[in-house]
Amino acid sequence: RYKLWCYFGIMASVMQKLITPLASGPAEPPRNKVTIVGVGQVGMACAVSILLRELADELALVDVVEDRLKGEMLDLQHGSLFLKTPKIVADKDYSVTANSRIVVVTAGVRQQEGESRLNLVQRNVNIFKHIIPQIVKYSPDCTLIVVSNPVDVLTYVTWKLSGLPKHRVIGSGTNLDSARFRYIMAEKLGIHSSSFNGYILGEHGDSSVPVWSGANVAGVSLQKLNPDIGTDKDSENWKEAHKMVVDSAYEVIKLKGYTNWAIGLSVADLTETLVKNLNRVHPVSTMVKGMYGIGEEVYLSLPCVLNSSGVGSVINMTLNNEEIAQLKKSADTLWGIQKDLKDL
Amino acid sequence: TSTENKHDPHIWRLEFASHFSSLHSSIGVLKSMHVFVQDLTDELALVDVIEDKLKGEAMDLQHGSLFLKTHKIVADKDYSVTANSKVVVVTAGARQQEGESRLNLVQRNVNIFKFIIPNIMKYSPNCILLVVSNPVDILTYVAWKLSGLPRNRVIGSGTNLDSARFRYLMGEKLGIHPSSCHGWVIGEHGDSSVPVWSGVNVAGVSLQGLNPDMGTDKDKEDWKSVHKMVVDSAYEVIKLKGYTSWAIGMSVADLCESILKNLRKCHPVSTLVKGMHGVNEEVFLSVPCILGNSGLTDVVHMTLKPEEEKQLVKSAETLWGVQKELTL
């Protein structure tokens, strides 16, 4: 080729002199592409956590605010030397998201002062009506992780709008609540949070359910050591740990204006299990109709075995009557909102 | 600059001491260890008596330096190369000869440790000793006695690997990743280890709660055979490839990570259990322990069934039976 250029008297470029291509043809499609929808604080924390864990061979960012989107993309691309994700793209147009394995949805509006929950949800439904069909159009085989709040309702909305089977739509749910719980409990005990096992399930937020019967260290059940754990009679007031989890988000928001790092890391953890087909158990929001006496189509967090097809199976918890009642109550509340949503 | 770095308190050094009469198994374990700990430490020292093999191993590792994050890999017969180590992993030891009594094997290994341990202590008086050589519970006791270190700085790899094997087999049975399967094997490393069935769980759901026969002979699902497979694992691998190396190497790296990064994670490792679970002798057995940068700082007290405690007491008596005959 070089000789041909010389023959025609055209100066060979540096690249042509330097590199001799051997194989030409269309580029192979990405195998582990991740798309993040929404480049706010949460979206970018998810993006960075996923990049640093080297989970994706391509990362796509989508948002409506074009300047910010481009700026975030450039800032990440400039770090390429230190990363193992060779292609980082961004666009307002969803075609940039094509062939994604995982799509993380962090887009959505925040609650205004005095706004009803139903109104907030309806506004977010209108946004998702634009987002979700486009995602599925370009990545029909993807697994969706919904992070936007109120997450359980919006995961239901996403499922309805996507037309995907229920095991491929996951809500980040109480994955973060459980991580906060394990951190707080482990601090109390002076050990690493990964050595404390405990699950918070159900509705993400104020009505989440700490499953005290399962809380253990090295298989030693804390409830067996202290049968009052989690109740008001408990002289050690372990219930306080759950309250701290519920208050966590508000506290961080009050101090720094938003939360992003912990949620970003927790989403990367889910992404790793999905992309690497690990069959690890995570508390995430899934469709629970038919479980624990719940008759409505609602999403609540239960321990799910995640793999490359999404939710592979659900672990059947041995819950007490009070815990089951709390789940049912959450289901009723969620359905109360969902049934009035228009245009799903 | 390297001599300046030697005294820098922020440098973590890791050392492997091997002293082998039989090469094959030791080098296998050695190889895997240092491959797995390479990102945890900034200096790695290897010690052995067989100089050729030692030099070959060190060179082979050094040739991989481009791909590693450990800037200095050294090796020597002379223990001065190990100075200022934060953690010292001891994999040295003789293997059991045909027809040899356990007491005789242990006494031969004691003689080897009588050379190794004081040398380690001379150059790294503030180290944490991690004993891997078998029989690990007895040799951890021996290392503790010979080193003069406080009990929180002498740790035996114990049933860390047994528990990892148990969780792997449990994961295979359930179709779930081992990190989401929880089960603890404690006590004496080897044939008499104790699977604590009451603690076996996934997502906090006690499997024994779902199947009360678990661990007994009546159990239709035969979970007891999972523990038997754990006990037989080493023999099976040795029969097939001559030695085990990878899993033990990874499990030791996991322990080193908790120590060097001060994680305070809970691991089943061998520690002095006199006064616990009805044990009255000065013996080392595996129980869940918290590991951090000062070593083994806390023990998690498991709620054991009477039969399980009886097994620990029996192991303690057997171990003491051997230990009291040793000349240290």
From TrEMBL, chain A:
Signal peptide: none annotated. InterPro entries: L-lactate/malate_DH, L-lactate_DH, L-lactate_DH_AS, Lactate/malate_DH_C, Lactate/malate_DH_N, Lactate_DH/Glyco_Ohase_4_C, NAD(P)-bd_dom_sf. Pathway: Fermentation; pyruvate fermentation to lactate; (S)-lactate from pyruvate: step 1/1. One of its GO terms (cellular component) is cytoplasm. The keyword tRNA processing does not apply. One of its GO terms (biological process) is lactate metabolic process. The active site is at H204. NAD(+) binds at G38, V39, G40, Q41, V42, G43, D63, N124, V147, S148, N149. Pfam families: Ldh_1_C, Ldh_1_N. Its EC number is 1.1.1.27. One of its GO terms (molecular function) is L-lactate dehydrogenase (NAD+) activity. This is L-lactate dehydrogenase. It comes from Sinocyclocheilus rhinocerous. The lineage of its organism: Eukaryota, Metazoa, Chordata, Craniata, Vertebrata. The gene is LOC107744904.
TrEMBL record, chain B:
It catalyses: (S)-lactate + NAD(+) = pyruvate + NADH + H(+). CDD domains: LDH_1. GO terms for biological process: lactate metabolic process. Keywords: Cytoplasm, NAD, Oxidoreductase. GO terms for cellular component: cytoplasm. It comes from the Eukaryota. PROSITE patterns: L_LDH. Its EC number is 1.1.1.27. SUPFAM superfamilies: LDH C-terminal domain-like (SSF56327), NAD(P)-binding Rossmann-fold domains (SSF51735). One of its GO terms (molecular function) is L-lactate dehydrogenase (NAD+) activity. It holds the Pfam family Ldh_1_N. Coiled coil: none annotated. It is an enzyme of class 1 (oxidoreductase). Signal peptide: none annotated. Residues 27-156 form the Lactate/malate dehydrogenase N-terminal domain. It is found in: Cytoplasm. Residues 159-319 form the Lactate/malate dehydrogenase C-terminal domain. The active site is at H189. NAD(+) binds at D48, N109, V132, S133, N134. Pathway: Fermentation; pyruvate fermentation to lactate; (S)-lactate from pyruvate: step 1/1. PANTHER family: L-2-HYDROXYCARBOXYLATE DEHYDROGENASE (NAD(P)(+)), L-LACTATE DEHYDROGENASE A CHAIN. Homotetramer. NCBIfam families: L-LDH-NAD. Belongs to the LDH/MDH superfamily. LDH family. This is L-lactate dehydrogenase. It comes from Sinocyclocheilus rhinocerous. The gene is LOC107707550.
